[in-house]
Amino acid sequence: MVGAGRMGRAVATRLVGEHEVVLVSRRPGRMTDGEGRVLDVGSDPAAASGCAIVLLAVPAPEVAAAAAWIAPHVDRTGLVVNLATELPTADVAVPGIRLVGCKIIGQSTQIERGSPAALIAGSATRTERDLLSSALGRVGVVIDAPEQLAAHVNDLVARRVIAAQLDLAAALDESGAPPQAREAALGNLAVGIWGAVASGNTGPFLTRIVEQLRTPAHSGGPRSHDG
User: CB under 8 Å to 179, separation ≥6 — which residues?
Assistant: First the structure.
């Protein structure tokens, strides 16, 4: 794993214990994963030698440099993976390595907690996807689809969810909810309801509301706050 930011830490957390994970970065040190384990982050790119898969978990502007940094040490059969969602893998050319895209539909904190992601690996061959599926199964399912799908879905979901959060925050302010109630509603209740509905784990209260909102009377869109 090259890079130890949010997504690098999340993916490493899922893989440690099942695979031998080696972390390297231009900013070495130590990090603690979500289970309290201390992971060493080295600074020697030669650590990639012998690794079947090298994951580039760095921001899009740093992918080409990270790939070039690690390339002299990657085995001939090693697979280097571009995880940067917004960077088309075809736009990166580094001699001497096989670079494929594997774009993540998911959020780093949720991945670290064990919520499955979707991994879009359309630029990989079937054999490479099988290898990625075997290695990254604890992160999520690997899908054969155009890699730009991940950026589209992530952007769509982010915009819709953020818009809903802003709308909900405004409605809570209009209701006169005190700060503590507002914080609990946004940081606890809203998050819990989203997870319960998304997973189908709803009790009577939420089930009733879901059924109400799915009736034809509600199919035209959200109601105003006063209705």
Answer: none
Which residue spans of the chain are classified as CATH 3.40.50.720? 6-148
Residue pLDDT, tens place only, 93-117? 899 899 999 999 999 999 998 999 9
126-135: long-range contacts (C-beta < 8 A, 24 or more apart)?
128/79, 128/100, 131/52, 131/53, 131/79, 132/53, 132/79, 132/81, 132/102, 135/15, 135/19, 135/52, 135/53
The CATH number assigned to the domain with range 6-148 reads: 3.40.50.720
How does pLDDT run across 16-72, given as a tens digit for each residue? Answer: 878 888 999 888 788 776 667 777 889 899 999 999 999 999 999 999 999 999 999
